[in-house]
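Severity: low
Component: inverse-folding endpoint
Summary: output formatting inconsistent between runs
Steps to reproduce: submit the following structure tokens with default settings.
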């Protein structure tokens, strides 16, 4: 039997979000450049139908071919010492899911969707306070507010000017969240978007 017929929580969620089914499509493409010893995650996405579409790209350098030909604890652990992050991006295209989630959450709390949206934005500085980066926190709040006001596409991209060693990233993460922001320089951007018409299936490709 369908999940929504056997699970009361799932049925409630479907009714609250005004959905009768969930569409799901995904594609993952990995490419290895032996000359540059780099592994790339290219044009990969997770399509959630009426909710939205999540797309990602990333590139990690300093990965020897031995990590693929003879994967073991030694070769894989060596990536932590030789690997470096060249770049990464993540973006979400909204197809109606954001407003559905806000409306459902607002109805449950017996407030309007606009009031809930404003409350979320007011809480955001507190959530980002531990970063100790006021300018970055304000930019995040502004971009998220712009997105919630008119959901379309929100992009997060690392503003790296040169590759960053994995050990350096681990060190910054252990030091403080703010140090990680300084190192990776994440940038948020809100764009207008149109829904793509082509869906793919899961796949893996290594050259």
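Observed output (run 2 of 3):
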């Amino acid at each position: 039997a369908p999940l929504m017929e056997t699970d009361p929580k799932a049925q409630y969620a479907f009714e609250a979000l005004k959905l009768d089914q969930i569409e799901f499509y995904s594609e993952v493409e990995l490419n290895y450049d032996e000359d540059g010893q780099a592994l790339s995650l290219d044009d990969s996405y997770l399509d959630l139908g009426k909710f939205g579409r999540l797309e990602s790209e990333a590139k990690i350098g300093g990965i020897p071919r031995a990590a693929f030909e003879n994967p073991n604890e030694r070769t894989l652990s060596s990536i932590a010492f030789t690997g470096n992050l060249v770049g990464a991006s993540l973006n979400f295209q909204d197809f109606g899911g954001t407003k559905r989630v806000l409306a459902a959450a607002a109805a449950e709390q017996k407030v309007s969707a606009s009031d809930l949206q404003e409350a979320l934005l007011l809480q955001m500085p507190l959530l980002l306070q531990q970063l100790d980066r006021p300018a970055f926190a304000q930019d995040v709040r502004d971009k998220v507010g712009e997105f919630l006001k008119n959901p379309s596409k929100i992009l997060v991209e690392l503003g790296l000017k040169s590759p960053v060693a994995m050990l350096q990233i681990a060190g910054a993460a252990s030091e403080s969240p703010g140090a990680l922001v300084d190192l990776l320089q994440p940038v948020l951007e809100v764009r207008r978007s149109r829904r793509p018409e082509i869906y793919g299936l899961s796949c893996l490709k290594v050259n």
